[in-house]
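Researcher: Next entry in the queue.
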Amino acid sequence: MTRYHLIALSVLAGLSGTSNSRAEAIAEDKSNEIEEITVVGRSVSYANNAASDDMQKQQANLSSVLAVVDNLPGVLINEGDTFGADDWSTSIVIRGFQVNLNEQQIGMTVDGIANGNSNYGGGAKANRYIDTENLQTIEVSQGTSDIASRSHEALGGTLNFTTINPSDEEGFVASVTAGEFDASKYYVRYDTGEILKDTYAWISLSTQESSDFMDQVAENTRDHVALKVTSTVENVALTGYVSYDDTHEENYQRIYSLEQYAQNPDWDQLTSEWTGIPYQDQSYRRGWSTLRENLLAYLKAEFTLGAVDISASAYYHENEGRGDWVPPYLVDVKDDGTEGHSELVNGNTVYGGSALGNIYFVDSDGMQLSPIAGCESSITFPYGGAGAEYDPSCHEQGAIPVGSYRHTHYNKERLGFNADGIWYAKLGEFDNTLRFGVWWEDYERDEYRDWHKITDSAIGYDFNNSPYWVQYDRSFPVDTLMYYVEDEIDFGVARVRLGAKRFNVDIAKHDNFDSVNNLDVNSDSDTLFSAGFVAPIAIDGLELFAGYGENFASIKDAQLERDDTDLRFIEPETAENIDVGLRYSSAKFNANITYYTIEFNNRIQFTSNETASGIDFLEAAAGGYRNVGGIESSGFEMSADFAITDNITVFTSLTLSESEYIETIGGTGTQYDSLANAQAAIADATDAESSLVAVKGNTVIGTPDTMAVISLDWSKNNYFAGISTKYVDSRFIDIYNTAEVDDYLVSDLYIGGYISNIGQGMEELEVRLTVNNLLDEDYASTIAPNAFWIGAPRAVAINARLTF
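Model: Structure for this entry, 804 residues:
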């Protein structure tokens, strides 16, 4: 049966004061700016686009906010789960830059507030902070991006997710969504109207559940609470926002070969039943879990000092969570001699140290057993099969299987402040706008890993409360200071800007068990220059724009996790971005075309501990981060939206891109003709440098050369409908370009209507049906090095929304 959670919140604070015409003007200008954002984007010297209302209707309310921007040019969103309920398998690709398990190269902000990195271990994407129903829009700044963007990751642009503002009128919204794969969501929002002088607020609560699309055994849950307040006090416009998100997601597994995918494109090799054989139960889906809690709060003030407009924000973010796996053994971490194994007894915990070996089966006295001499295992699943030590048939009758539940615990606290100033003045006869600002953030991320004995591996995955081993415990303090200045002069024939910014980033690693492993890294940037212009053309509404920007991504704390990290092989990533384009805007037709070219240097790549042969749960094998050369990307992005009639609109986008590795890496200089041969050469290499191979000219993994979208949207009277289709070209899954997933075509459909003034205080009832992946296309979703996730199948959801 479905289990529903009750969320309660009794927090509502007001801000009082008298109004001021200047503050009201600031608030009104801000509101108008949001409303005027179109798909084509703002009149700035770099490419940018924003999600439309129709794009939001294409996604079910159960989906994450990330899915909304998938139709914009240059953007590819892949989520392994039907409704985005798996951060593990989620990826974003823009112009060859990626956000996935291994790379974080695209900036992300929430109402302009830094999101705190988007990595899996301690980071958070925007879907952790915003409910779908509370989303105003998403603005995508590809490539060059805005100079004021707050992110350690904005090599390939920034996604800014904005929340809705409180309504002037009191009101109540209730929404119920039901979908396939046991999915449901309940959402309510109360708009207070004016609760104090010039003070408005809303508060929302939601809870949702879903299962996996493979065999419906996962129990994904998400509870979300949010509050937003706007107020005007004297000459200051204030905005406050608080959100709390509690999520439990059960993951999907990667597919490690095209042959495996062809054998069964509907199964990711995770199992739905507990077998009692630990080697097989390491693939039990309920044991692959992501648990996260995120609390974000900010307070923003906007006011004017003389000729300078000031916007300042302070924010706090706390992230807490856990990642789970089910290793098919106990780790022997204490030499107990002939007295059995203390790891079997709850309450005996070893802190730190290293593994003495692994325990697979024990007898009734708790003594480790060895397999029968000469026995060959009959186990063939997973990872191609197991050795005799894992096979119960290779042990004497009465052997007791033992296994572990491995938890990696994440915790992060961030405290930050940012301020921006805009000074309007005359430079001779020309209008001059000077922008300047600062961003400061202090955070500390804590991570520790503990291993719990599964209480009885023969019957289930319940585990002892006390861990038998805490493998490591470490903290990563990070201090960031970013400051910038930019000047723009309007010459009439063109607006020209020139700017510069700089990052000062200090990162450290504190090993709470062994200070020998401590690290301290300075990851400052050089001065990063940007420039651009916007020039109106003879045709009314048409403008030419061009921009240049130097972007930077600091070394991240995750890259210091391994005790064998060699900082000689890690430098900050940098990128030089150039945009040149045309933008046209009118009441009925909007369009743009952008040519871009990017050179990306010092790309940091992760060597995974998870391969087709299994997971290195102890991380004893080589794994970690290092710079592996550069990437060059170029291409065209085009989009247009136009009204065919008063009732029918069309949106279309086309992306033509080329992303290639531009350096020969390592000492071998060898180009391998197959992934298997390249991996064999790496395995046989003895020198770390010669283990890297030549990939110059190869296409960057996970990047399609072509993407195209066409959407048709219709509305008349009280009814609306739309259909959208996206084409994604084939993509390589390895840097050697020897394995490639097929292209795919996915369509989304929505249809709905509403009834107004239905009586008894009910203003409107709206019903909307959404069908994602309408034709049930089989396709590869997120790409990871040498692997990929299976794309979600057709999913139907229906939403009923009642407004009071």
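Model: Residues 21-36 form the longest helix (16 residues).
Researcher: Noted, moving on.
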